[in-house]
Amino acid sequence: MILQIQGLRFRYPDGRVALGGVDLEVGASERVALVGANGAGKTTILLHLIAMLRGEGSIVVDGTPVSEKTVDDVRRKVGLVFQDPDDQLFCPTVGEDVGFGPRNLGLDEAEVESRVHDVLAAVGLHGYEDREPHRLSLGEKKRVALAGVLAMRPALLVLDEPSANLDPRARRSLVDLLRRIEGAMLIATHDLDLVLDLGARVVVLAGGRTVAGGPADEILRDVAVLREHGLEPPLSLRALA
User: Fold this and answer.
1) Contact 155, 62 (CB under 8 A)
2) What is the pTM of this model?
3) Inter-axis angle of helices 94-104 and 109-122, to 10 degrees?
4) In whole angstroms, how far apart are CA 121 and each of 34, 96, 126, 144, 208?
5) Rounded to an integer, what distance in angstroms lies between the CA atom of residue 115 and that of residue 92?
6) d(CA 147, CA 174)
7) Bridge partners (DSSP) listed for residue 59
8) Whether residue 238 has pLDDT greater than 70
9) Cβ partners under 8 Å of residue 31, min gap 6
10) Rounded to the nearest 10 degrees, how much is the dihedral formed by the CA atoms of 177, 179, 181, 186?
11) What is the pLDDT of residue 213?
C-alpha cells in the first residue's frame, strides 16, 4: 500500500470535530476519490498527509509513518496540488516554479532542467519555461502547479478539487491528462463526473466519517446514498435519478 490511514481523528480549536476516526488505504497505481459535501472532511484529510495538520491515529505513506521526525521525507513522497494554483505558484517564470522543488532536493542543474522539460511536455505546456505564471489562464496555471508536483516524482499524487472553476474545454483537457498519469492518486472533489471519467474507487465522507465506499460505477449509481449525503449523481447518470 502507498497510503494507510487508521483511526484518524481531528478536532479544531473551537471544538468542532472534523474527522471522527477515518480509515483509508490507497494501493500502488490505484485512483481513489474522496467525495462529500462541504465540511465532510476531505481537505482536512489531505492536509494531514503533508503534516500541515496533526490529529490522532496513524498515517503511513509509502512505508514511512507521518510524524514530526519524518515531515521532510513524507513531503517528498506526497505531492499535493492545491485547489487554487495561485496558492502554489510564486516564481517569476514557469520554469523556475516547476524546478523549485527539484532544486531544493539538491539535484544538479542538468537533472533539474531535464525534469522541467519532461513534466511540462507531459502536461501539454512544452515551451512554457519562460512564461510568467500570473499571465496564464486558470487551466494553464493548474497544469503548471501539477507539473511542479510531478517534477518531485512523488509516491502519491494528491489533488484537491482539480476541476474547480474550469471551463468545459479546460476540464476535458485536465481529465485526459489525469488519465495518462501513472501511479497512486488521491482526489478530493465534488465533481462526480470527473470521478466517473477516471474510474476511481469512491470513498464517501460525511461528518468526518466514511459512510460508503466502492467502485465508481457502483457508488455513483446509488442515488439514495449520494443525496443522503449532499451529493448529486454525475450528469451522465442523472437520468437514473
Assistant:
1) yes
2) 0.93
3) 130
4) 29, 15, 4, 11, 38
5) 18
6) 12
7) 5
8) no
9) 184, 185, 187, 198, 199, 200, 201
10) 110
11) 95
